C-alpha cells in the first residue's frame, strides 16, 4: 500500500524535467493569457451557451458568476502549485507531489478523458459553424458528410413512428442525410468529415512547434475577442427588457441543470499549466496569467449571456450556433454572416490549445514511467512531444467523426471537477507539510479554524428555514433512488463535516476549503449516467496502471534499487 502512495519531491520533479525536457522556452505572460482565453472562450460561448440559456433563462448569467467564483479558488490553488512545481503535467504532477502515485495516475487518466472529450465537443461545434459559413457562400456539404450517424438514424426512426409533420427542421435535415447517404448493403455511410479534418489540421500545427501554435493562437484570439465585443456592443441596441422576464423561469433547478455546459467553458486555465516547461518565467507568469484569464473571460461570458437572452427570448435559444442565430432572428443577416465566419476561427483556437495540452500530460506521465517511453519522445527538429501529439489527434478525430455532441458535453466536467478538488486539497497538504515555503505565489491565507464549521451551521440553518421544498422532496424519495441519484449530495455534506473538524484541528486555510466544497457541490448536479461512464473509464485506467504503470514506475525502480 505504501508503494501506491509514494510521492515525488519537488526537487526530484525539477531534476527530471531538466533532464528529459528539450522543449522550447518561448512563452511570456501575454502568450499565456492568450492561450487561456483561447481555451476558455471557445465552444462554450459559441455553442453550449445557447443550450444553457434555454435551460436556465437569463439567470444563466448568474451561474457563470457562481462558476467563476468556484474557479477563483481553484485558479489560486493552481497558481500556487504552478509557482512551486513549474513543469508540464498540470494536476497530475501536483497530485504526485501531494498525494502520491496512485492519485496522480487517477488524475492523469481523468485529464486524458477531459481533454479528449472537450476537444471532441469543440471539433463538432466547429463543423457546425463551418457548414453554416459555407452555406452563406452558396456551398453545401451533404448532410451525410457533416453529422453524426445518430442524428440521422433518430430522425429516420421518428419519421417512421410519427410521420413528417412531427419532424423539426433539424430532424428533416437528419432524415435527408439518412435517405441520401451512400450505403454498404443496408447500412448508410454517415460521418462528420469537417470535424475530423479540422482535428487533423490542428494536430499538425501543434506537432510542428509551440512557437507556431502560439502565434496562430494570438491572432485567432484577437479576432475572437473582437467579434465577441462586436456582438455585445451591437446586440445592446436590439435588447428588449421584457425578454429578461421571467429571469429564472425554471428556478434554481433549471439554472443548475446547465452546470456542466457552463463549467465546460472554464476548464481552460488547467491547460495553461501544461505549458509550464515552455514558459520563460513560469513561477512568475503562470499565476498572473491564470487570474487575468478568469477575470477577462467571466466578464465576457456574463455580458454575452445577458445580451443573447435580451435580444431573443430564452425559449428560442436551443440552437448550436446561438451568436449567429440571434442576429438572424432580429433581421441583421450581415452580422450573422460575419459571426459565422469568425466563429470558425475562434473555435479553432480553443481546439488548438486543448490539442497542445493533452500530449504534454501524457509526456509527463511517460517521463515518470507510468506510460510507454514513446509518449515522452521529443521531436529533434520541432521540439514537441511528437508521438503523444499524433495519438492525441487520433483520440479526438475518430470520436468527432461519429458521435453526437450531446453525449460528450456533461462528461467533460466529471474529470475536471475531480482534478480541481484534488488541486485545492493539495494546497492544504502543502501548507501542513511545509512545502508552501517553496512557493513563489501563495493562496492568501485566511484561518478557517472556526469559519468552516460556522459555515456548515449557517448552511443547515438556511436549508431548514428556507429549503422546506427540498426537504419535502427528499422525504418523498425512495431509499434506492437516493442511493442511485443523491449519493454525491450526501457525500458533499459529509465532506463538509470532516473538513470542519480538520480545519479546527489543523487551522486550514479557508480559500482552498471553499474550492473543495464549491466544486464538490457542482459535481452533485451532474447526471448519474456521466458518473457511470467516468467510473468505467477509471476502471480501465486502473487496469492499465496495475498492468504497466505500477511495474515500470521510476519511483518503484528506485525503491527496489535501494
Question: Distance between termini?
Answer: 18 Å
How many structurally independent domains? 2
Please estimate the helix content: over 70%
Report the CATH superfamily of the largest domain.
Amino acid/polyamine transporter I
Structural class: mainly alpha
Outline type: globular
**Order of secondary-structure elements:** HHHHHHHHEEHHHHHHHHHHHHHHHHHH
CATH class of the largest domain: Mainly Alpha
* Strand neighbour order, sheet with most strands: 1-2
- SS strand fraction: under 5%
Which descriptors apply to this entry?
single chain, about 550 residues, mainly alpha, Amino acid/polyamine transporter I, 2 domains, two-stranded antiparallel sheet, about 75% helix
Description:
The protein is mainly α. Helices cover 73% and strands 1% of the residues. The chain has a two-stranded antiparallel ribbon. The protein is globular. The mean pLDDT is 79. One of its GO terms (molecular function) is amino acid transmembrane transporter activity. It is a multi-pass membrane protein. Residues 510-553 form the Cationic amino acid transporter C-terminal domain.
Write a brief caption for the model.
This is Amino acid/polyamine/organocation transporter, APC superfamily. With 562 residues, this protein is mostly helical. The chain is built from 26 helices and two strands.
Amino acid at each position: 500500500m505504501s508503494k501506491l502512495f509514494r510521492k515525488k519531491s519537488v526537487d526530484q520533479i525539477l531534476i527530471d524535467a531538466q533532464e528529459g525536457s528539450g522543449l522550447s522556452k518561448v512563452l511570456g505572460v501575454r502568450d499565456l493569457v492568450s492561450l487561456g482565453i483561447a481555451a476558455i472562450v471557445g465552444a462554450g460561448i459559441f455553442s453550449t451557451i445557447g443550450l444553457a440559456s434555454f435551460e436556465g433563462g437569463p439567470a444563466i448569467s448568474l451561474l457563470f458568476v457562481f462558476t467563476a467564483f468556484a474557479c477563483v479558488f481553484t485558479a489560486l490553488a493552481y497558481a500556487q502549485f504552478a509557482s512551486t512545481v513549474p513543469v508540464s503535467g498540470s494536476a497530475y504532477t501536483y497530485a504526485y507531489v501531494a498525494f502520491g502515485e496512485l492519485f496522480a495516475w487517477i488524475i492523469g487518466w481523468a485529464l486524458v478523458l477531459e481533454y479528449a472529450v472537450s476537444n471532441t465537443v469543440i471539433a463538432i461545434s466547429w463543423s457546425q459553424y463551418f457548414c453554416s459559413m459555407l452555406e452563406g457562400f452558396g456551398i453545401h456539404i451533404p448532410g451525410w458528410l457533416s453529422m453524426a450517424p445518430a442524428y440521422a438514424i433518430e430522425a429516420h426512426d421518428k419519421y417512421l413512428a410519427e410521420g413528417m409533420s412531427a419532424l423539426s427542421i433539424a430532424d428533416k435535415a437528419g432524415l435527408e442525410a439518412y435517405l441520401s447517404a451512400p450505403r454498404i448493403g443496408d447500412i448508410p455511410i454517415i460521418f462528420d468529415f469537417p470535424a475530423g479534418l479540422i482535428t487533423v489540421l490542428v494536430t499538425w500545427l501543434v506537432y510542428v512547434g509551440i512557437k507556431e501554435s502560439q502565434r496562430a493562437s494570438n491572432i485567432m484570439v484577437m479576432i475572437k475577442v473582437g467579434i465577441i465585443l462586436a456582438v455585445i456592443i451591437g446586440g445592446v441596441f436590439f435588447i428588449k427588457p421584457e425578454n429578461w422576464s421571467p429571469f429564472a423561469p425554471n428556478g434554481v433547478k433549471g439554472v443548475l441543470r446547465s452546470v456542466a455546459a457552463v463549467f465546460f467553458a472554464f476548464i481552460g486555465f488547467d491547460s495553461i499549466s501544461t505549458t509550464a516547461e515552455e514558459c520563460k518565467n513560469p513561477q512568475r507568469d503562470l499565476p498572473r496569467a491564470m487570474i487575468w484569464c478568469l477575470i477577462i473571460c467571466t466578464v465576457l461570458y456574463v455580458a454575452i449571456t445577458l445580451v443573447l437572452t435580451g435580444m431573443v427570448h430564452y425559449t428560442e435559444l436551443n440552437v448550436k450556433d446561438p451568436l449567429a442565430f440571434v442576429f438572424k432572428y432580429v433581421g441583421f443577416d450581415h452580422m450573422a454572416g460575419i459571426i459565422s465566419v469568425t466563429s470558425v476561427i475562434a473555435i479553432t483556437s480553443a481546439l488548438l490549445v486543448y490539442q497542445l495540452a493533452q500530449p504534454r500530460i501524457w509526456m509527463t506521465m511517460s517521463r515518470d514511467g507510468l506510460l510507454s517511453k514513446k509518449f515522452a519522445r521529443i521531436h529533434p527538429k520541432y521540439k514537441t512531444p511528437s508521438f503523444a501529439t499524433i495519438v492525441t489527434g487520433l483520440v479526438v478525430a475518430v470520436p468527432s467523426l461519429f458521435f453526437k455532441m450531446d453525449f460528450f458535453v456533461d462528461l467533460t466536467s466529471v474529470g475536471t471537477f475531480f482534478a480541481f478538488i484534488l488541486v485545492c486539497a493539495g494546497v492544504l497538504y502543502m501548507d501542513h507539510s511545509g512545502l508552501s515555503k517553496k512557493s513563489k505565489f501563495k493562496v492568501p491565507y485566511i484561518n478557517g479554524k472556526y469559519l468552516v464549521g460556522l459555515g456548515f451551521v449557517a448552511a443547515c440553518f438556511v436549508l431548514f428555514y428556507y429549503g422546506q421544498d427540498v426537504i419535502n422532496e427528499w422525504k418523498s424519495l425512495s431509499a434506492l433512488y437516493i442511493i442511485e441519484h443523491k449519493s454525491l449530495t450526501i457525500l458533499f455534506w459529509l465532506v463538509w463535516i470532516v473538513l470542519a473538524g480538520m480545519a479546527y484541528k489543523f487551522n486550514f486555510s479557508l480559500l482552498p476549503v471553499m474550492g473543495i466544497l464549491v466544486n464538490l457541490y457542482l459535481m452533485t448536479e451532474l447526471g448519474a449516467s456521466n458518473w457511470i461512464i467516468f467510473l468505467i473509464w477509471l476502471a480501465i485506467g486502473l487496469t492499465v496502471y496495475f498492468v504497466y504503470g505500477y511495474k515500470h514506475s521510476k519511483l518503484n525502480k528506485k525503491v527496489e534499487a535501494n
